[in-house]
Amino acid sequence: MVITFVLGTRSEITKAAAVACALHETTNAQTVLFLIGQQHALTRQALEAFSMDGVVCDGPSLVTPPDDWQDWRSTAQVRMTECLRQFPADLVVVVGDTSSALLGAEIARAHEIPVCHLEAGVRHEQLSPHEPEELIRRSITSLATFHFAPTWAEAENLLNEGVSKESIAVI
Predict the structure, then answer these.
(1) DSSP-based helix, strand, coil % in the chain, nearest 5
(2) What is d(CA 18, CA 33) in angstroms, rounded to the nearest whole number?
(3) How many CB atoms lie within 10 A of CB 133?
(4) Which pTM does this prediction carry?
Protein backbone atom coordinates (compact mmCIF):
# COMPACT_ATOMS: atom_id res chain seq x y z
CA MET A 1 0.00 0.00 0.00
CA VAL A 2 1.23 3.50 -0.88
CA ILE A 3 -0.03 6.52 1.07
CA THR A 4 0.79 9.98 -0.24
CA PHE A 5 0.73 12.95 2.14
CA VAL A 6 0.34 16.39 0.58
CA LEU A 7 2.15 18.82 2.88
CA GLY A 8 2.84 22.50 2.48
CA THR A 9 3.57 23.87 5.94
CA ARG A 10 5.31 22.89 9.14
CA SER A 11 1.98 22.80 10.98
CA GLU A 12 0.60 20.35 8.40
CA ILE A 13 3.57 18.07 9.04
CA THR A 14 3.08 18.39 12.80
CA LYS A 15 -0.56 17.31 12.45
CA ALA A 16 0.18 14.53 9.96
CA ALA A 17 3.16 13.01 11.77
CA ALA A 18 1.23 10.86 14.25
CA VAL A 19 -1.13 9.61 11.55
CA ALA A 20 1.76 8.80 9.22
CA CYS A 21 3.56 6.85 11.94
CA ALA A 22 0.41 4.96 12.95
CA LEU A 23 -0.43 4.06 9.34
CA HIS A 24 3.13 2.93 8.72
CA GLU A 25 3.16 0.76 11.86
CA THR A 26 -0.27 -0.81 11.31
CA THR A 27 -0.21 -1.23 7.54
CA ASN A 28 3.50 -1.23 6.71
CA ALA A 29 2.55 1.20 3.95
CA GLN A 30 5.08 3.03 1.86
CA THR A 31 4.90 6.74 2.61
CA VAL A 32 5.26 9.34 -0.12
CA LEU A 33 5.55 12.97 0.93
CA PHE A 34 4.53 15.51 -1.70
CA LEU A 35 5.90 18.84 -0.49
CA ILE A 36 4.37 21.98 -1.91
CA GLY A 37 7.13 24.04 -0.29
CA GLN A 38 5.27 26.94 1.30
CA GLN A 39 7.83 26.89 4.11
CA HIS A 40 10.60 24.86 2.49
CA ALA A 41 13.32 25.07 5.17
CA LEU A 42 10.85 24.69 8.06
CA THR A 43 9.17 21.79 6.29
CA ARG A 44 12.45 19.89 6.00
CA GLN A 45 13.25 20.56 9.67
CA ALA A 46 9.83 19.29 10.73
CA LEU A 47 10.24 16.11 8.67
CA GLU A 48 13.50 15.43 10.49
CA ALA A 49 12.10 16.35 13.92
CA PHE A 50 9.21 13.91 13.56
CA SER A 51 11.32 11.26 11.84
CA MET A 52 8.90 11.26 8.92
CA ASP A 53 10.64 9.27 6.32
CA GLY A 54 9.52 8.17 2.95
CA VAL A 55 9.91 9.11 -0.65
CA VAL A 56 9.90 12.89 -1.06
CA CYS A 57 8.47 14.50 -4.18
CA ASP A 58 8.97 18.24 -4.42
CA GLY A 59 6.21 20.45 -5.66
CA PRO A 60 6.66 24.09 -6.62
CA SER A 61 8.09 26.47 -4.06
CA LEU A 62 5.72 29.01 -2.61
CA VAL A 63 7.68 31.39 -0.42
CA THR A 64 5.56 34.44 -1.17
CA PRO A 65 2.26 34.69 -3.00
CA PRO A 66 3.04 33.96 -6.63
CA ASP A 67 2.45 36.52 -9.34
CA ASP A 68 0.31 33.99 -11.15
CA TRP A 69 -1.71 31.51 -9.04
CA GLN A 70 -2.77 29.59 -12.15
CA ASP A 71 0.86 29.05 -13.10
CA TRP A 72 1.65 27.84 -9.57
CA ARG A 73 -1.37 25.49 -9.57
CA SER A 74 -0.46 24.15 -13.01
CA THR A 75 3.12 23.47 -11.94
CA ALA A 76 1.94 21.77 -8.73
CA GLN A 77 -0.56 19.68 -10.68
CA VAL A 78 2.08 18.51 -13.15
CA ARG A 79 4.56 17.64 -10.38
CA MET A 80 2.00 15.82 -8.24
CA THR A 81 0.75 13.89 -11.27
CA GLU A 82 4.36 12.87 -12.03
CA CYS A 83 4.76 11.78 -8.39
CA LEU A 84 1.54 9.72 -8.55
CA ARG A 85 2.69 8.06 -11.78
CA GLN A 86 6.03 7.16 -10.24
CA PHE A 87 4.52 6.07 -6.91
CA PRO A 88 0.87 5.08 -7.53
CA ALA A 89 -1.02 5.96 -4.36
CA ASP A 90 -3.78 3.93 -2.74
CA LEU A 91 -4.70 6.89 -0.53
CA VAL A 92 -3.89 10.62 -0.50
CA VAL A 93 -3.92 12.42 2.85
CA VAL A 94 -4.43 16.18 3.06
CA VAL A 95 -4.37 18.35 6.17
CA GLY A 96 -6.42 21.36 7.17
CA ASP A 97 -7.55 24.27 5.07
CA THR A 98 -4.67 25.40 2.88
CA SER A 99 -4.50 25.82 -0.88
CA SER A 100 -2.06 22.91 -1.00
CA ALA A 101 -4.56 20.63 0.79
CA LEU A 102 -7.33 21.55 -1.64
CA LEU A 103 -5.06 21.08 -4.63
CA GLY A 104 -3.97 17.67 -3.34
CA ALA A 105 -7.59 16.59 -2.84
CA GLU A 106 -8.57 17.79 -6.32
CA ILE A 107 -5.68 15.99 -8.02
CA ALA A 108 -6.26 12.77 -6.07
CA ARG A 109 -9.95 12.73 -7.00
CA ALA A 110 -9.09 13.45 -10.64
CA HIS A 111 -6.94 10.29 -10.51
CA GLU A 112 -9.72 8.37 -8.70
CA ILE A 113 -7.63 8.00 -5.55
CA PRO A 114 -9.46 8.10 -2.19
CA VAL A 115 -8.78 11.22 -0.12
CA CYS A 116 -8.39 11.33 3.66
CA HIS A 117 -8.87 14.78 5.23
CA LEU A 118 -7.19 15.43 8.57
CA GLU A 119 -8.85 18.21 10.61
CA ALA A 120 -12.15 17.58 8.87
CA GLY A 121 -15.31 19.31 10.03
CA VAL A 122 -13.72 22.46 11.43
CA ARG A 123 -16.18 25.27 10.70
CA HIS A 124 -16.26 29.00 11.32
CA GLU A 125 -19.46 29.62 9.34
CA GLN A 126 -18.20 32.77 7.63
CA LEU A 127 -17.50 32.62 3.91
CA SER A 128 -15.29 35.54 2.93
CA PRO A 129 -13.12 36.13 -0.13
CA HIS A 130 -10.54 37.66 2.23
CA GLU A 131 -10.40 34.51 4.35
CA PRO A 132 -10.78 31.56 1.98
CA GLU A 133 -10.12 28.86 4.59
CA GLU A 134 -13.81 28.13 5.20
CA LEU A 135 -14.49 27.66 1.50
CA ILE A 136 -11.40 25.45 1.22
CA ARG A 137 -12.54 23.29 4.18
CA ARG A 138 -15.98 22.77 2.67
CA SER A 139 -14.53 22.02 -0.75
CA ILE A 140 -12.20 19.37 0.69
CA THR A 141 -15.14 17.83 2.55
CA SER A 142 -16.93 17.36 -0.77
CA LEU A 143 -13.84 15.65 -2.25
CA ALA A 144 -12.81 13.48 0.71
CA THR A 145 -13.59 9.82 1.16
CA PHE A 146 -12.49 9.68 4.79
CA HIS A 147 -12.89 12.49 7.31
CA PHE A 148 -10.68 12.57 10.42
CA ALA A 149 -12.22 15.13 12.77
CA PRO A 150 -10.25 16.49 15.75
CA THR A 151 -13.24 16.42 18.14
CA TRP A 152 -16.81 15.16 18.33
CA ALA A 153 -18.07 18.70 17.60
CA GLU A 154 -16.38 18.67 14.20
CA ALA A 155 -17.70 15.16 13.54
CA GLU A 156 -21.20 16.49 14.30
CA ASN A 157 -20.64 19.32 11.79
CA LEU A 158 -19.85 16.73 9.13
CA LEU A 159 -22.91 14.64 10.00
CA ASN A 160 -25.11 17.76 9.80
CA GLU A 161 -23.74 18.38 6.30
CA GLY A 162 -24.71 14.90 5.17
CA VAL A 163 -21.34 13.14 5.42
CA SER A 164 -21.86 9.46 6.17
CA LYS A 165 -21.12 8.32 9.71
CA GLU A 166 -19.04 5.42 8.37
CA SER A 167 -16.55 7.80 6.72
CA ILE A 168 -15.89 9.88 9.88
CA ALA A 169 -13.39 9.14 12.64
CA VAL A 170 -12.46 11.32 15.60
CA ILE A 171 -8.71 11.24 16.09
Answers:
(1) 45, 20, 35
(2) 14
(3) 16
(4) 0.91
Residue 118 confidence (pLDDT): 96
pLDDT tens per residue across span 58-88: 877 665 556 777 888 888 899 999 999 999 9
d(CA 12, CA 140) in angstroms, rounded, equals 15
Sheet with 55-58, strands from edge to edge, namely 55-58, 30-35, 2-7, 91-95, 115-118, 146-149, 168-170
Beta strands in the chain (DSSP E): 2-7, 30-35, 55-58, 91-95, 115-118, 146-149, 168-170
Identify any residues that bridge with 149 across adjacent strands, giving them in sequence order. 170
3 Cβ partners below 8 Å, 6+ apart? Answer: 20, 23, 27, 29, 30, 31, 32, 89, 90, 91, 92, 93
Would you say how long the chain is, in residues?
Answer: 171
**pLDDT tens-place string over residues 89-130:** 999 999 999 888 999 999 999 999 999 999 999 998 777 777
Bridge partner residues of 30 (DSSP): 2
Cα angle for residues 69, 70, 71 (degrees, 5° grid): 90
**In 3-state terms, what secondary structure has residue 65?**
coil
**Mean pLDDT for the chain overall:** 88
